[in-house]
Amino acid sequence: MGLIRKFKNVPSYWFQVPWCVPDWGWREFRTTMATLLTGSVRQGPMADRFAGEIKELLGRRFAVPVSRGREAIWLALRALNVGASDEVILPSYVCASVLDAVIQAGANPVFADIDESLHVTARSVERAITAKTRCAIIPHLFGNTAPVDKIEAMLRTRRIALIDDAAQSLGARRSGRPIGSFGEFGVVCGGPAKPLAGPAGGLLLTDDPDFYANALRNRLQSEGTSLVLRRMLAFWFWRRFRRYTILLGIVAERLRGSGPEPPACEPRTASNLDAAVLCDQLDRLPETRQKREHVARQLEQVLQPLSWRVINDLGPDAIPLKLVVLLPDNGPELQTAVKELASAGIECQGGYTPCHWNVRVSEGIQLQNTEALWARVLCFPIERPLKDTRPLIRFVQMWSREASKEHLSASKS
Q: How much is the pTM?
């Protein structure tokens, strides 16, 4: 009976729109096969080509290819000579890999609160500054942009370095400048939920020759060929064809259990194969942006009767990554919405769990917005079009009725 219960709900995991399916096609397939056949999986010219194209896009002078975004952040902190007694400001509402990089560099993380855009503000960053602050990391989430222009101006007067993390918003702009071009360092990387969809690969960018020289003093090793190949093939199988392989993945996980997260590995340089795929993704970024914006607007229109607040900026200066909504205080709860939307054929997820719950927080730091908002963030995948909107429309109608009942009950009381 226990085994039956484990697999009872498995057939429900068949999604019309699965989570984080990269927009890969024949171009990425040709790239993968070409590097395999030529034996250039690990080393080759593509990392330098990727660095050159991103430098031109962002107007940066120098770039260091790395395997992952967190390694670029770690390298930036090393280039700044950030040490054990130094503090680095970052949002608590962010991917845990950003915090991992700060801890791996030996620095003390200090968290700044977010507003309803889910980003830090110049004021919240300023409140987190102490005499020990050496650097602030400003990520841009879900294709939107943080007020990095105002934060840059504020930090410059205090001679505090800025890392402009463009991992989730490459291609977006703020005050006429591309995201990734602000501050002393910019960070770009690939990932399944990023504008450049890929299993790995990234860059640390800077305009300062001294910082660049400092970064190069940390000699990065190459990843092994077998590791790069396994990761790329797994990305093809589990990500590109997720709609068909998700059931197999769920069965495997329930048989063996999820297990602990693997420990962070030593920083590595970008492989030729990863960089080549990211070059393909960069070439088609305008096309990908247009497709995602179309799906995001389609979803936004269907969800309109619910009056849920859409966080996304779908204007020309943003780069749609997910359609992100903020659930109302009176419900539905996040997990209820995720479950009901799964029944409608859409594999939604929540946002990030606050990082400050896992580390010691400095006295006096208030993260009220982070703690109030994080469990209300609901993300819709927009990599694939919603061909049949009827199940989603039924979901909207159901929750519209629930909201009306709630409003009527509140009025009577």
A: 0.92
